[in-house]
Design goal:
The complex is a heterodimer. Chain A is α/β, with parallel strands linked by helices. Helix content of chain A is 31%, strand content 30%. In chain A, the strands form 3 sheets. A 9-stranded mixed β-sheet of chain A has the order 11-10-9-12-8-1-6-7-13, with helices on both faces. A two-stranded antiparallel sheet of chain A has the order 2-5. In chain A, strand 3 and strand 4 form a beta hairpin. In chain A, helix 2 crosses helix 5 and helix 3 packs across helix 4. Chain A is globular. Chain B has 2 domains: 179 residues, Rossmann fold (3-Layer(aba) Sandwich), CATH 3.40.50.620; 121 residues, Rossmann fold, CATH 3.40.50. In chain B, the strands form 4 sheets. A 7-stranded parallel β-sheet of chain B has the order 7-11-6-1-4-5-12, with helices on both faces. In chain B, helix 4 links the parallel strand 14 and strand 15. In chain B, helix 2 packs across helix 3 and helix 4 runs parallel beside helix 7. The N and C termini of chain B lie far apart (49 Å). The chains are: A alpha/beta, B alpha/beta. Chains A and B meet through strand 3, helix 3, helix 4, strand 9 and strand 11 of A and helix 2, helix 3, strand 7, strand 9 and strand 10 of B. Strand 11 of chain A pairs antiparallel with strand 13 of chain B. The complex binds flavin-adenine dinucleotide. Flavin-adenine dinucleotide binds next to helix 5, helix 6, strand 17 and helix 7 of chain B.
């Protein structure tokens, strides 16, 4: 099994747009993407029942090691980092090519990935990897059982929920609820700290980078003016709020 | 030539609201930048194509086995080959616009990978500036926006509901065309599907969202949220604290690890306003917060704040709205 592990800034990290709008300053607190952590946990659970091994793969330009150490600390058997300067601010397709090439080289029955990363929230890489590998993909799963070379998965739909079967090898992206990520034991953390994580470049994998979409700049989210505070008896404020929503905000 | 292709996706007997919004924005942009607007509609959805009359220069229906019932494999193959064939049909697109939806999320990335095209999701704007075509999308949960320039190279982009108004002038002469998709077998089989709690209005598409948090003090009071939502023809959402307590479904959670909503009006009742919650609703147009604690962070993200008991304010507001 291969788990795709992205290193992202901590959810609480400060993000600031530089004065010229050309870049973002992001506080350097980094870790494994929230949804990838769930993917690692799901893989470890399957490993126990199916006896397969778990390889965590990350792609970055000098980043990714933190994410992989977390995956190792949780109990993954091995880790691999695709480390290449071309992965700096890389396009999703370039990242997907890197990860797909790594998965192909290492071999896989199942690739698990988070449904999206918490930094760009794009949700592109998992399904792209499936397409590049030529295998089927099911997104946002909340239930997973593997029997032989068939995976039975559950996911929420707009109407309710559905259960699907998919022939392996496949790529599955995971939604919150599939598994509760374990907190690594101290022993695991120590082992992960000492682990030598092998690195490969895009060229070594035969993967090609494509130039990213031109970035015109960054902008700060438009700030809301301070809230208009209403006070008084519920009935009075309700009348006043309804009036403001109708006449001032014009949303009713 | 055609610059804009909109993927027209239907649900429950009509195209999604986003289809009409995207077509309207494509018409506005084609008006200022030049170019044509085409709509692509697949499988069963194509049966509704008459509704697109006047909204695009061409409406291309893609038919074939493997498209109905929907399967990701079928749609990816059909869209891939149809988009590849467009230039030969005199309709080379620059931007292919999708509305955010579960289908879009599984189809768009794979089509982009197949075509070697650019892909962007979660976009909130596509606009013209000095002759340049620009796309805006939030990053880091809305802490900032990235603006991309669309130049050479096709871009497949998914836009959030309510990104654009649907009211651009229509009345275009529309040519209806048909193409056949390559036969594709789905490698994924649906074993069963069950309907969840009936939701009349989808949370992410709703114009109004009434959301409740721990301050609602449990499921016994959730009818107060539903009643206001009904009066406003909106949907009900919940904070993670409520979902984690097993009082609501995850499908109704708003926030970082739940749904992202951008309604016209968002009412937060008994929600503290943790950053993870804010990330799921900060692009709402107008935010109303009801909280007993005057120092609750939610007031920092609201347009209107009411310091008070949600259990009393909600019914009073519902009554006032019903009165009209
Ligand atoms: C990785 C991660 C992801 C997360 N994702 C999400 C997410 O997707 N969505 C989400 O919502 N949270 C998310 N959270 C959790 C988030 O940090 C908060 O814990 C959560 O939003 C709190 O929910 P709440 O506002 O309902 O509860 P509380 O924080 O307990 O707030 C309750 C509020 O109700 C007020 N109150 C009490 N009584 C009344 C009354 N009678 N009338 C009016 N107000 C009253 C209180 O003053 C208080 O402000 C996430 C956290 C993490 C770590």
């Amino acid at each position: 099994m291969v788990v795709l592990a992205k290193e992202v800034p901590d959810l609480e990290a400060m993000v600031k747009v530089t004065a010229d709008g050309g870049a973002l300053e992001v506080e350097k607190r980094r870790g494994l993407n929230f949804f990838d952590e769930i993917a690692v946990e799901a893989a470890l659970k399957l490993e126990q029942s199916a006896g397969a091994s778990v390889l965590a793969v990350s792609a970055g330009a000098g980043t990714g090691i933190e994410a992989l150490r977390r995956a190792l600390a949780m109990g993954s058997d091995a880790a691999l980092l695709v480390d290449d300067p071309a992965l700096e601010h890389a396009d999703s397709l370039t990242v997907a090519r890197a990860l797909a090439a790594a998965a192909r080289r290492e071999g896989f029955d199942l690739v698990l990935a988070g449904k999206q990363a918490t930094d760009d929230e794009a949700g592109l890489v998992g399904p792209m990897v499936a397409e590049l590998l030529g295998v089927p993909c099911v997104t946002n799963i909340i239930g997973l059982q593997v029997e032989g070379d068939i995976a039975r998965v559950t996911r929420e739909t707009e109407a309710g929920r559905e259960t699907l079967s998919v022939a392996l090898p496949a790529v599955l992206t995971v939604e919150k609820g599939l598994a509760e990520p374990r907190v690594p034991a101290v022993m695991g953390v120590m082992k992960a700290m000492k682990a030598q994580i092998p690195r490969v470049t895009l060229a070594e994998l035969g993967a090609e980078a494509q130039p990213p979409l031109t970035l015109a700049g960054y902008a700060t989210a438009p700030a809301r003016p301070p809230a208009k505070m209403l006070e008084g008896e519920p009935a009075t404020v309700a009348v006043e709020l309804a009036r403001l929503l109708k006449e001032e905000a014009k949303v009713l | 030539m055609s610059r804009f292709v909109v993927i027209a996706e239907a649900r429950d007997g009509d195209y999604r609201p986003s289809t009409y919004e995207l077509l309207a924005q494509a018409r506005r942009l084609a008006g200022s930048l030049g170019g044509e607007v085409a709509a692509l509609t697949l499988g069963d959805d194509a049966g509704l194509r008459d509704r697109l009359s006047g909204l695009a220069h061409r409406v291309i229906s893609i038919g074939g086995a493997g498209l109905a019932p929907y399967s990701a494999d079928g749609w990816v193959a059909a869209l891939g080959s149809a988009l590849d064939a467009l230039p030969a049909r005199g309709a080379a697109p620059q931007v292919i616009l999708f509305g955010e939806s579960p289908r879009t999320r599984e189809v768009l990335p794979r089509v982009a990978a197949r075509l070697g095209a650019y892909a962007a999701t979660n976009a909130v704007d596509l606009f013209e500036d000095g002759g340049r075509l620009l796309l805006r999308r939030p990053v880091y949960g809305g802490k900032a926006y990235a603006v991309h320039e669309i130049g050479a190279g096709r871009v497949l982009a998914a836009f959030r509901p309510h990104a654009f108004g649907a009211d651009a002038p229509a009345g275009l002469p529309t040519a209806f065309e048909e193409v056949a998709a390559p036969a594709t077998e789905s490698r994924v089989t649906v074993l069963s599907s069950e309907a969840g709690a009936a939701r009349t209005v989808d949370l992410t598409e709703a114009n109004v969202v009434v959301a409740g948090g721990r301050g609602m003090k449990g499921p016994d009071n959730f009818h107060l949220l539903q009643e206001l939502a009904d009066a406003l023809e909106g949907a009900v959402g919940y904070s993670r604290a409520v979902v984690d307590a097993g009082q609501a479904e995850h499908a109704q959670q708003v926030g970082k690890s739940g749904k992202t909503v951008s309604p016209t009006l968002y009412v937060a009742a008994g929600i503290s306003g943790a950053i993870h919650h804010i990330m799921g609703m900060d692009t709402a147009k107008v935010v109303v917060a009801i909280n007993t604690d005057p120092s609750a962070p939610i007031f920092g993200y609201a347009d209107y704040g009411i310091v008070g008991d949600a259990l009393q304010v909600l019914p009073a507001l519902t009554e006032e709205i019903r009165r009209g």
